[in-house]
Each structure stands twice: as C-alpha cells, then as structure tokens.
Amino acid sequence: MSVEAWSTVVGTGGAVWTTMSFLPQLVSVRRQGGRDLSLTMLAMYLVGSLLWLAYGVLNDAMAVIAANVVVIVLVSAIATLKIAGDRRASTRRLRIAIDMDEVMADALGEHLARYNAAFNATLTADDLRGRHLEECVPPAQREATEALLDASFFERLAVLPDCREVIGELAARHEVIIASAAMDVPCSFDAKYRWLRQHFPFIPPSHIVFCGDKAVVDADYLIDDRARHFTRFKGRGLLFSAPHNHHEHRYPRVSSWAEVREFFAGLDGTAVRRNAAAAASPGLPELAGPPLNLPD
User: Which of 34, 105, 133, 282 has its CA 20 to 30 A from that of 41?
Assistant: First the structure.
C-alpha cells in the first residue's frame, strides 16, 4: 500500500475509534446517570466539534465532517441525559445514611464509664483526643476493655443531644437510613435494633442496615464518626466530631446535631433557589456546577 493509502486507513481508524469512544459513556449515563460528569467539559468539547465541523465544510473534508457530526450527536445526547438526570435528582428526596455509635448514641461515654468503674480510673473524653480508648489504656487492660462491649452495653446508651429531634425533621423531608457497622461487635445486633426501635420508632425496620463495609449503602450522604467509611462510599461523607477523629481534616465536619440541622437546611435552601431559577428560565439549563441536591 502507498503512503497515501496507509494515511487514509490510519486517519479513518483514528476518527472512528475517537468518535465511537463516546458510546460507552452514553450507555453509562443512560443507565446510571451522569452525576460525576462535568457539563462544562461537554460544552467545551461540543464547541470544539462544531468548529471542526465548520473547518471540514470550509475545506470540503468529508472525513472531518462525518466524524464531527457523529461526535456532536453523541455529546449532545450525553449532555441532554445528564441535564435530565440532574433535574430529576434535584426534585427527589435526599437519601441520608447515619451511623449509630458516637453519632446517634453516646457509646464513648458509656465505654468510659464502664472502664473507669472496672479499673478505678479517671479517664475523660479530653484524654482521648486523637486516639481511641483502647489506645489509651495499659496493654494489660486492652482485652478486658474491649470485652466491656457486650450485648447489654448497647441497650443502655444515651441519645446524643438534639439527635432524635433533628433525625425526625430529616426523615420528614428526606429518606433516612441507619447504617451501623455492627459486624465489629457481632453480639450487638439485637441490642442495637431494640435501642433504635425504642428511641427512633419512626425509622422503619426496612431502613436499618447492619453491615461491615458501608460502601454497600447507596445514599447521597453518610454521617459517620469514622473517616474510613468514606473511602469507598459513593456519596458525600459528613464527619461527626468525636475525640478520636480530632486530627481528621479531609472531610466536612459537624460537631453536634444542631450543626447537622443547619447543614441540611442550607442544602434545602440552595435547592429551592436553584429550582426557582430553573423555573424562571426553562429554556436555559445550567451547563456547569454540581447536581442541585449534592452541592460542593
């Protein structure tokens, strides 16, 4: 084959593969939504393709024209699906997953009380800053300290201030799921369930999840005191302050349930303002920024 023939083959192959590379993305957005896609990037690519199409028309380059027509169709379809998905997401209720121990229930306070009583100690929460209780006790007492987490431990936990009221407010506006890593203490299943039914009867059993890895929970937000649960979680992590996570700075943080109320009230206000703006200009969808219910 001549150089010209090889050039045609290589150029055609490159154009086909580059153009068709948008097909898997189109299928993915259609099936799963395009929450993580940037509309700004799609808009810039679309402008570039339109300019290449104009170049092809001006220079009578049919290969350039054909490739960019296909690209424009695919990118436009992807952008349309993303905009439609974002609008649907903005009108649905948020799904909020909430940890139990040290977020809803004062597990640390009970553990400290039991430890101090068992070993005639005077440890306080301030002594644990940046560490777990097991890291602050003498090595000889660690096994006995962990053994204090028996089934009865979880039945006596106090509800943290404002927790019941704020979760009730959230459940009235959004979908609330209780996600507890009960596999860390397998004997806790029954006690945790009874505790939740006693203090939070408005949370249906279908919305209580006992798991090991919270990445299995499909939610928009996870409120948890342990940052490790955010690593593979697909939504947004909201760190609930506890002595052991004092040095954690990678995630947004709330220090009380009053702050949780303010955080989600702010999100609701943002969604209302954006929905009002979209209603006022229905023909001009926003091409940049995060989904309405998941702002940065």
Answer: 282
